[in-house]
Amino acid sequence: MSPAFVLEVQTSREEEELVESHEYHDGVKHLCERGLAKVPRKYILPALERPFMSKKDGATNLKLPVIDLAKLQGPDRVHTLKSLSKACEEYGFFQLINHGIASESVLNMFQAARKFFELPFEERSKYMSKDQSAPVRYGTSFNQNKDSVFCWRDFLKLSCHPLSDVLPNWPSSPAELRQAVVNYSKETKSLYLMLVKAVLESLGVVEKAENADENDSCDHLKEFEDGSQLIVANFYPSCPEPDLTLGMPPHSDYGFLTLLLPDEEVKGLQIQHEGRWVTVEPIPNSFVVNVGDHLEIFSNGRYSSVLHRVLVNPFKSRMSIASLHSLPFNSMIRPSPKLISDANPRRYMDTDFASFIGYMASHEHKNKNFLESRRLTQQG
Ligand code: OGA
Ligand code: NI
Fold first, then answer.
1. Dihedral (C-alpha) 284, 71, 289, 161: value to the nearest 10 degrees?
2. Label partner for 347 (CA 20 to 30 A): which of 8, 36, 295, 323?
3. How far is the CA of 37 from the centre of ligand 2 (A)?
4. Ligand 1 mean position to 260 CA, how many Å?
5. Of all protein residues, whose CA lies closest to atom 3 belonging to ligand 1?
6. Is 310's C-beta closer than 6 angstroms to any atom of ligand 1?
7. How, if at all, do strands 318-326 and 228-236 pair?
8. DSSP-derived 3-state class of residue 244
9. Nearest CA to ligand 1 atom 2
10. What's the gap in Å between 176 CA and the centre of ligand 1?
11. Which of 28, 117, 246, 258 to mutate to test the pocket of ligand 1 (most atoms within 8 A of CB)?
12. How would you write the pLDDT of the chain (380 residues) with one tens digit per residue?
């Protein structure tokens, strides 16, 4: 590379730095609307954290284990539960097919979210909030109050429980958004409950779904029914220099299970598997489901909440809708007593949402550091 060329690159990066620092907080889409040719310095990861550092990373696409909900609910349940258990142990992720949610509901949810991101900035920005527990939050990056390097994502987060309390806070524009989210959140909640029953059964915490109400685990199920739900619409604008930044940094999800609808046309989600980053190949009409920190704790470490991240690309923007589920906000999350024994001692301390939110507000979220802070013994 000639010295003259290097100089030219540096100069054009400096021109971009005319962006005022508060503007990063207005979101990546807003920034891109000015026509960026370079990634501003605020988004440039240290060399070792960039997405294509190792030749092995992303070299292969991963076929995640596939779980068929129709089989899970039918005569093949026992066999399917074994596959579910293996997927949660070995990958922390699976793809769910035949999930039974009407494609119209999914389409309406995507369309409403897309229209929200297309609103004029002034309209979207009404919902910006620094309060991590606000029932509606439009924002950017991963944890914009703490991130030293920003990531290439804008989001809309909507709390969904209890619906009557939160609904009046949701955006009133686009007009169809509230109804689309109400329908979608109800459908994903019942899907989640079916999956939770299967997960409890696969862990041996509940004997059989039909008997669940008759044994002492019914309290668990009630707690799950009354649990928290957060819908997150993620928007990743196309990026002029995708090898310098990430749409989302490596992270684990905090809840019990996340039901993710990835963009069917644009890949980007990568999970860490056997020590390398692998790209998830979307399957049409399916969900990507993953184990969160709370399920890792509840299962006393048998199921793992696996690190994942999002790549961006120079050609197309990408959207995904995540539905994050856990216990009620004031519940304690702890290893199930049935999964603790002399041979398998308790591995995590009790934790609750308050401590989680407190942790998130006061630390830069890196990898699985929240879960590590709850760990009692080193896994050997
Ligand atoms: C998330 C997440 C992945 C994606 O929202 O927590 O990991 O593909 N999303 O957008
Ligand atoms: Ni995630």
1. 110
2. 323
3. 28
4. 7
5. 269
6. yes
7. antiparallel
8. coil
9. 322
10. 24
11. 258
12. 444 444 444 445 555 555 666 788 899 999 998 888 899 999 999 999 999 877 666 667 778 999 999 999 999 999 999 999 999 999 999 999 999 999 999 999 999 999 999 999 999 999 998 787 789 999 999 888 888 899 999 999 999 999 999 999 999 999 999 999 999 999 999 999 999 999 999 999 987 655 544 555 566 788 999 999 999 999 999 999 999 999 999 999 989 999 999 999 999 999 999 988 999 999 999 999 999 999 999 999 999 999 999 999 999 999 999 999 999 988 899 999 999 999 999 999 998 777 776 776 666 666 677 788 888 865 44
Q: Where are the alpha helices (DSSP H) in the chain?
A: 3-16, 21-24, 28-32, 69-72, 77-90, 103-118, 121-124, 163-166, 177-203, 218-225, 293-298, 353-362, 369-374
Number of Cβ within 10 Å of residue 144's Cβ equals 16
Helix (H) / strand (E) element for 270: namely strand 269-273
pTM of the predicted structure, to 2 decimals: 0.91
What would the two tokens of residue 7 be?
A: 């100089």
Coil/strand/helix, residue 336: coil
Q: Residues for the chain: how many in total?
A: 380
Q: Locate tokens 């539960």: which residue?
A: 81
